[in-house]
Amino acid sequence: MSGIYRELAPVHDTTTVPLVVIEPEGHTRGGIVVLHESREFTEPLLDLMRSLAEDGWTVLAPDLFHRANGVAPDKVFGADLYADFDACFDWLTGRGVFGDCIGVLGFDSAGTAAALVATNRRVGAAVSVAAQGIESALTPQALALAVAAPQLKAPWLALFGADDPHTPPEQVDRLRDAAAHADVATLVVTYPGLHHRPDHPGFDPAALDDIHVVDAQTRIFDWFDSHLR
């Protein structure tokens, strides 16, 4: 099936995680799991997924909040995060995608989640944009990124705005040093003068001509191109 559709992936044979899936028109090069904080699949998020699919990837965005049970968490980490990611991974491999051709991408606290997935699962590549919780863990179920980074098992690209108050530059520098101790390729990039995340144009239409946005999008696509083989 090509195009965009909704799907359910089994989690530990006891429940399912809802997915939004976008497939490329032709043969898939691999899969990218997009972690996100939205409880709805916004048009900007779908634009990003479409762009990745146009580049040849099968893209999955799981609803990480499906276990809310009347309580609305704003972040999902720990065993629930890994279980949902594993469900996405199994869904992709069950459709013929090789494990080393599966990547993970996340923004903000979901960027933190993407990095932590890459410290616990041997995926092909990971990208985090404006990932928070560098020196202090975001929740009791998460590790601080500076602590987790040396344990990365997948090539990791991290993008930050140099003037983002959530990720002070001195903390990003320490994260860069910590990531350098990992046994995989890592690249931590900061964009001067940027107050928040240097992500793709769909998240900020006013930034369509921003050189940082163009550079960040290029880096994200190039990172997956280089490492998901």
Which descriptors apply to this entry?
about 230 residues, alpha/beta, Rossmann fold, 6 helices
* Uncertain stretches: 199-209
The CATH superfamily label reads Alpha/Beta hydrolase fold, catalytic domain
Estimate the strand proportion: 15-25%
Helical content (DSSP H or I, runs of 4+): 25-40%
Order of helices and strands: EEEHEHEHEHEHEH
Count every helix, treating DSSP H or I runs of 4 or more residues as helices: 6
Task: Decide which structural class fits the backbone.
Answer: alpha/beta
Name of the level-1 CATH class: Alpha Beta
Largest sheet entry:
8 strands, mixed
From the 3D structure, determine the CATH topology: Rossmann fold
The CATH architecture can be named as 3-Layer(aba) Sandwich
Keywords: Hydrolase
GO molecular function, one term: hydrolase activity
Domain Dienelactone hydrolase: 20-225
Pfam families: DLH (PF01738)
